[in-house]
Amino acid sequence: MIATVLVQSEDFDIAAEIQKLTAGDRDVGAVVTFTGVCRDEAGKLSALELEHYPGMAEQEIERIAKQAGKRWPLTGLIAIHRFGRIRPGENIVLVVAASKHRHAAFEAASFMMDFMKSRAPFWKKEIFLDGTEGGWVDARTKDDDALDRWSEE
Amino acid sequence: MIATVLVQSEDFDIAAEIQKLTAGDRDVGAVVTFTGVCRDEAGKLSALELEHYPGMAEQEIERIAKQAGKRWPLTGLIAIHRFGRIRPGENIVLVVAASKHRHAAFEAASFMMDFMKSRAPFWKKEIFLDGTEGGWVDARTKDDDALDRWSEE
Amino acid sequence: MIKLVYFAWVRERIGKSEEEIVLPESVSTVSGLLDHLKERGEEYRYALEHSEVIRVALDHRHSQHDAEIGNASEIALFPPMTGG
Amino acid sequence: MIKLVYFAWVRERIGKSEEEIVLPESVSTVSGLLDHLKERGEEYRYALEHSEVIRVALDHRHSQHDAEIGNASEIALFPPMTGG
Fold first, then answer.
1. Would strands A45-52 and A91-99 be described as parallel, antiparallel, or unpaired?
2. Handedness of CA B61, B64, B68, B69 (dihedral sign)
3. Is D50 on the interface with A (CB under 8 A)?
4. Min CA distance, D82 vs chain A (Å)?
5. What residues does each domain of chain B span?
6. Is-above-0.90 flag for pTM?
7. Topology (CATH) of B2-130
8. What sections of D6-83 are H helices per DSSP?
9. pLDDT tens digit string along C62-72?
10. E strands, A3-44, where?
């Protein structure tokens, strides 16, 4: 299974990414996508500024993807994380997982997101409509807790 | 939360369906899609013929969607199930779940698929490349077991 | 008169997709209906031979074999579902 | 010489995104580095005051505070991540 990992400022095309995992592979029975979208925080948010650690961001997501590929029988996996200024309604992150069966695809996509949230080196800063900076978004302990359910006994 | 349920012979456009749940709703932070695709069964399959129970198919999927809507804080839910002749590589079923947070979207989409597999009145017949009918696909006990994990204690 | 509808291999074995029948007064439950149908001929016995696997819907709702037919106007018989 | 890179509010508080420093021989672990940096000035003390929350990567790999710096050529300091 070859995973595609992209860290980019541009938006992505979900349909085109799904197409890459299904075209020509007649053993794919299930495709799960996750799209993370910028919320407007009750109308207050003008944009998120996403900072990342170039080099490490790609490598860390690749390490997570490799773990997912070992853990579930996937036929394909794509992870795209954007950086830069992202406005409410715009996409932030995409995961596409393809497999023969649905549970593998669901679990791998969910695993990818839990680990990308807590381990991929990205940081969000809020910029409000009144021009003020809302400061850096705090990491939620909930996100760290989410990793626990994937610990293998 | 208004769920859209469609039972149709035509294909669907995943990007357009996602768009319906995100356009104009700035409180959506997570969109999960599941696409079920027809496999070619090691190159033997010419097509699946999907029979359904008109009327009940829509109603049963609506009942499942209603349960999902009660159980998770969703901002939108779409379920589309095709019937008729479907060839390898073509789409069979689509679920799109949107929510503020990712775990609700993942779980609702997974719940929808588990219940649609075992409770929506659809039956698959295999048609092989040599023109023979492979007969009706057997229901897998695994699919019934999959419902157990959603039982609320 | 009650409308019966059949799907997948139940339909193929019985040889029709729907029919209307008069339910004898003695038949009040789903399992009573299945037993009654088996008396209608070879094709019904073949379709319903393993009646425990047959799924039933009363007016578009999944029902158990011990359910009362009550006022249902459409009863569907079919094998376990394989959608999704 | 070792390259240090800073992100998010660690970068903002220190006031630069990267720098190269000569590591004293006495500094061999990540926590030793953090203590050493705090001596470099007010901005470092402010950035690293709650040093237990500071995350560290040695050559692009997450590392613990008790990790040996070893041959790492790039050390990154940053707050807990909030991607996804």
1. unpaired
2. positive
3. no
4. 5
5. 2-130
6. yes
7. Aldehyde Oxidoreductase; domain 3 (3.90.1170)
8. 8-14, 30-38, 42-47
9. 999 999 999 99
10. 3-8, 30-37
